[in-house]
């Protein structure tokens, strides 16, 4: 099932931890019996070749300790060589994983598509499994349904059924119950075409033609996902299961609304099924959530509402992290491009896969912290939950912005309006004052001047009127020249790393401890830190507030719990190495670094963060840390 991480499996005398994606890679290599390139594996998994290479590189050493060798050859790819006493165990582990996921998907489809109550005993008979196995799988099914705002209702002597709106049912059905591997998806479409009159190629052609008519841009993966949703919509409409609610009514004033209308009309003509207005609005929502904007010369509208939201996010990050992004024009433009479709996904509960989420959390921790704060602001303003996958994408933007803080910006700006006077002067003043750019470096143009001006040396063109000609820079439409834009500051580059040992002491290092869960670990680390550092009274609550916002597990059996905001003048650190890993949230964790980044010296905070990040991805040093039996061992290692 998507977005789930497999629990650890016992192999031999020790424990081997594999994420679901790595298990899928092993399954593909095992099934093929030949070399497969990273591109071939990525195609089957629906991820990037780089992600595949990083997964294999990260797990290669651990797998080799169990006699599982992943051989690699230039231009040929990867080959799985199984040997030793654990070969049969691995085969059985992978086989059970695949069967378990299939059974969970079957359980979910059964409840999502049923109108009446279903008994678990009957479902157990259908799957040829025991009732106790169904009960075990049912716990995971229930947790997944809750993420989609679906409730399971139980009635004595009748059974169980799902309660929730049609939109959430469809989202859960498509995102959790359908296969992710390309070969499995091809079989899914073969079954659809065998059982119904719905044909993938026909739907794909309809979508392609309608999108082209508006010169609209969506990614290929999003296009395929839209086609699946359309197929599901046709089948559900035919059985009188309709999306309802005025918040999904279409708008003909937007390109998404016009495309949705054309798609619905074409499907109605081909499949003789009527799309009510709410269903057309549902298609429009998907288009808005899947759209992407090109940065090279394409334009987008920064509404007053979005400006206000981004300003509030900047204020919250400055207050809690001490980082001021208000001056970064490039970050402002790129993040606004990303947030336009993202806010639609958040508002309507559309989930977007992020196959590199844990890589982002591990390698870009400060960017992820900023993303968590941004998500909290969005959730507060919109009243909707921001998924972890979305936080991961936000973190990528903030990681770049953090690098910008270490550099001086050198951007070139032009301002345009219909006459080149009046409101454009307000806009110029706004950019000059709040981005801190020299007034003489901001060019002011009328629309007539724009058509005959060389803009090759301009990075951003601010405008309050439509720009209908092609320009070689990014166009940003500003709705109101009186709303606030960011201010300008610069940061000098920081390069050095911290010595972790100087933050630790024998009292702050817990080795080979037994813990029941993450609450136990965090409470014990907070207790030892309180004995040796000046902490605020609500320190423990701040750490738990951060955990509730997004679990601090980052993969590689590492967790980095910390307060939800900067609350100590100087950085402080405590370390726990567990005798046996605990499931933190979704992943097993053995190494726990409780850190409080200080607000007194931003440079020191950055150095500490970079050093912790280096350690978290260093498999060999973590292995040696697991072998440490004294504080002196840890001190020498760090």
Written description of the protein model:
Helices cover about 50% and strands about 15% of the residues. The protein has about 650 residues and is of the alpha/beta class. Helix 5 (about 120-125) packs across helix 6 (about 130-145), helix 10 (about 220-240) runs antiparallel to helix 12 (about 275-290) and helix 14 packs antiparallel against helix 17. The longest helix is centred in the N-terminal third of the chain and has 27 residues, at about 85-115.
Q: Topology of this structure?
A:
Blueprint: E1 9-11, E2 14-16, H1 20-32, H2 38-45, H3 49-64, E3 68-73, E4 77-82, H4 87-113, H5 120-127, H6 131-147, E5 151-155, E6 159-163, H7 166-176, H8 182-195, H9 200-213, H10 220-238, H11 255-271, H12 277-290, E7 299-302, H13 304-321, H14 329-348, H15 357-363, H16 365-382, H17 388-405, E8 413-417, H18 423-435, E9 442-446, H19 447-450, E10 460-463, E11 474-478, E12 509-513, H20 518-532, H21 539-549, E13 553-555, E14 558-559, E15 572-583, E16 588-596, H22 602-616, H23 619-627, H24 631-637
Parallel strand pairs: 7-11, 8-9, 8-10, 10-11, 12-15, 14-16
Antiparallel strand pairs: 1-2, 3-4, 5-6, 13-14, 15-16
Helix pairs in contact: 2-3, 4-6, 4-7, 5-6, 9-10, 9-11, 10-12, 11-12, 12-14, 13-16, 14-17, 15-17, 16-17
């Amino acid at each position: 099932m998507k977005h789930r991480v497999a629990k650890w499996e016992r192999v031999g005398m020790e424990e081997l931890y594999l994420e679901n994606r790595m298990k899928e890679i092993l399954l593909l290599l095992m099934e093929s019996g030949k070399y497969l390139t990273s591109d071939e594996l990525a195609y089957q998994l629906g991820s990037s070749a780089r992600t595949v290479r990083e997964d294999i590189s990260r797990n290669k050493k651990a797998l080799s300790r169990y006699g599982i060798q992943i051989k690699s050859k230039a231009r040929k790819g990867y080959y799985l060589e199984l040997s030793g006493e654990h070969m049969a165990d691995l085969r059985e582990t992978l086989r059970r994983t695949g069967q378990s996921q299939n059974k969970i998907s079957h359980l979910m489809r059964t409840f999502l598509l049923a109108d009446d109550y279903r008994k678990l005993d009957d479902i157990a008979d259908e799957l040829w499994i025991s009732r106790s196995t169904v009960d075990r799988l049912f716990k995971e099914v229930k947790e997944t349904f809750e993420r989609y705002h679906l409730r399971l209702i139980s009635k004595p002597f009748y059974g169980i059924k799902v309660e929730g709106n049609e939109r959430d049912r469809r989202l859960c059905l498509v995102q959790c119950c359908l296969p992710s591997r390309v070969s499995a998806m091809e079989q899914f479409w073969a079954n659809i075409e065998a059982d119904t009159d719905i044909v993938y190629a026909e739907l794909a052609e309809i979508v392609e033609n309608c999108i082209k008519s508006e010169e609209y841009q969506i990614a290929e993966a999003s296009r395929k996902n839209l086609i699946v949703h359309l197929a599901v919509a046709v089948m559900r409409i035919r059985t009188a299961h309709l999306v309802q609610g005025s918040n999904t009514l279409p708008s003909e004033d937007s390109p998404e609304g016009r495309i949705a209308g054309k798609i619905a009309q074409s499907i109605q003509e081909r499949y003789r099924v009527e799309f009510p207005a709410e269903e057309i609005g549902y298609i429009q929502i998907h288009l808005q959530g899947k759209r992407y904007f090109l940065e090279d010369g394409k334009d987008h509208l920064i509404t007053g509402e979005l400006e206000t939201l981004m300003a509030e996010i900047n204020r919250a990050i400055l207050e809690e992290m001490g980082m001021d992004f208000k001056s970064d024009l490039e970050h402002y433009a790129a993040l606004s491009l990303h947030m336009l479709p993202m806010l639609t996904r958040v508002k309507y509960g559309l989930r977007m896969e992020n196959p590199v989420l844990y890589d982002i959390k591990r390698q870009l921790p400060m960017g992820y912290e900023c993303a968590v704060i941004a998500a909290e602001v969005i959730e507060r303003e919109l009243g909707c939950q921001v998924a972890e996958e979305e936080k991961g994408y936000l973190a990528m933007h903030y990681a770049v912005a953090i690098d910008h803080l270490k550099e001086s910006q050198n951007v070139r700006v032009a301002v345009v309006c219909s006459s080149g006077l009046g409101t454009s002067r307000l806009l110029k003043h706004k950019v000059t004052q709040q981005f801190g750019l020299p007034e003489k470096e901001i060019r002011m143009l009328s629309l007539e001047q724009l058509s005959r001006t060389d803009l090759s040396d301009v990075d951003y063109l601010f405008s309050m009127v439509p720009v209908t000609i092609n320009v070689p820079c990014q166009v940003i439409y500003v709705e109101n020249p009186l709303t606030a834009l960011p201010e300008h500051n610069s940061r000098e580059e920081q390069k050095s790393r911290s010595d972790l040992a100087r933050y630790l002491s024998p009292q702050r290092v817990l080795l080979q401890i037994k813990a029941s869960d993450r609450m136990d670990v965090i409470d014990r680390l907070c207790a030892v830190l309180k004995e040796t550092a000046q902490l605020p009274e609500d320190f423990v609550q701040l750490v738990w507030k951060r955990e509730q916002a997004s679990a601090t597990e980052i993969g590689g059996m590492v967790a980095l719990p910390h307060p939800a905001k900067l609350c100590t003048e100087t950085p402080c650190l405590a370390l726990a190495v567990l005798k046996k890993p605990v499931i933190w949230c979704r992943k097993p964790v053995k190494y726990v670094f409780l850190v409080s980044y200080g607000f007194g010296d931003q440079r020191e905070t950055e150095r500490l963060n970079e050093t912790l990040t280096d350690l978290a991805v260093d498999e060999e040093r973590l292995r040696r840390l697991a072998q440490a039996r004294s504080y002196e061992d840890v001190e020498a290692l760090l």
